[in-house]
Design goal:
Length: 144
C-alpha cells in the first residue's frame, strides 16, 4: 500500500438505542440511515482520524412510520508513512490528499460495519446490515 497506513485507534465512541422497548416484529428490519463522516489531522502526533456517525431509522410494522432505532459513532486513528507527502498545512489547517482521505474513510466505514454488527448482536440495530458505500459518496454527502 503506497500510504503505509497503520491503525492506532479503533473505538466505539458512542452507541445508543432508542425505542428499544417497541416490538419491532420478527421480519428483517427496513429503514434508512444518516451518515456523517469527518476526517481530521492532528499534530504533533502526525495522526489522522476519521469519525463516522450513523443514525439508524427503522420502519415500524405496526406504526407505519420510520422511527429512530439508535446510533453508533466510531473513531479511527491512523498514522501514515511519509506524512509530508500526503498532508499539507495551510495556515492553521491541514489538507489531506483526497485519495488518502477516501482510503481512510473506506477502512473506517468497513470497520464501523463490523463494530455495529458485533456490538449490536442482541438488539435491533445490530440486525441492520450497513450497505457497502463508495467512500467518495460518503465524503461528498458529509460535506454538504
Amino acid at each position: 500500500m503506497k500510504y503505509g497506513i497503520k491503525i492506532v485507534e479503533l473505538d466505539i465512541y458512542r452507541y445508543s438505542l432508542e425505542n428499544n422497548d417497541l416490538d419491532w416484529g420478527r421480519k428483517k428490519p427496513t429503514g434508512n440511515i444518516n451518515i456523517n463522516v469527518t476526517v481530521s489531522a492532528t499534530m504533533p502526533a502526525k495522526e489522522l482520524s476519521v469519525k463516522i456517525d450513523i443514525h439508524i431509522f427503522i420502519r415500524h410494522p405496526k406504526k407505519n412510520a420510520s422511527l429512530p432505532a439508535g446510533s453508533i459513532e466510531t473513531i479511527s486513528g491512523y498514522q501514515i508513512d511519509n506524512w509530508d507527502a500526503f498532508v499539507k498545512r495551510t495556515g492553521e489547517k491541514y489538507k489531506v490528499e483526497e485519495k488518502l482521505k477516501m482510503e481512510l474513510v473506506r477502512i473506517s466505514y468497513d470497520n464501523t460495519r463490523g463494530l455495529l454488527r458485533e456490538r449490536g448482536r442482541n438488539d435491533i440495530i445490530g440486525k441492520i446490515v450497513l450497505p457497502v458505500i463508495d467512500p467518495h459518496e460518503l465524503l461528498k454527502s458529509s460535506s454538504k
